[in-house]
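Hi all, long-time lurker, first post. I run a small reading group and we've been trying to get comfortable going from sequence to structure in the token notation. Rather than ask abstract questions, I figured I'd post a concrete chain and ask someone more experienced to write out its structure so we can walk through it together at our next meeting. Sequence below, copied exactly:
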Amino acid sequence: MPKRDLKKSEKKEMVTLGKTTSFTGILKFSTTLCIRGTFKGTIEAIDAKGDLIVDKEAVVDADHITVNSLTVFGQISGNVQAHDKVDMMNSAKVFGDVSAERLRIAYGV
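-- Answer (accepted) --
Happy to help. Here is the structure in token form:
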């Protein structure tokens, strides 16, 4: 029987808040989270292990965001602390302080 590689299967797991979803409050997660709708509140990755993706049409208004890594295609208002990296793609709009080990900003942002 072949060994199952748990790390590979864990990396593929993703939770998505869809385009028609609107969420207000404190959101804590430990896997990859993709926001496609609207969010207002606080976003925290448990033990800073979770990765956040803000999709192109998403609007996030956060008191603060604490994650392992952040990839932004949409809009974020609020302060961001990423323990690893932040990627701002060409459609990204980020309003607030950003702290990360690595920061990549696409041309035109």
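A couple of things your group might point at:
The chain has one domain: 17-97.
The two ends are 49 Å apart (CA to CA).
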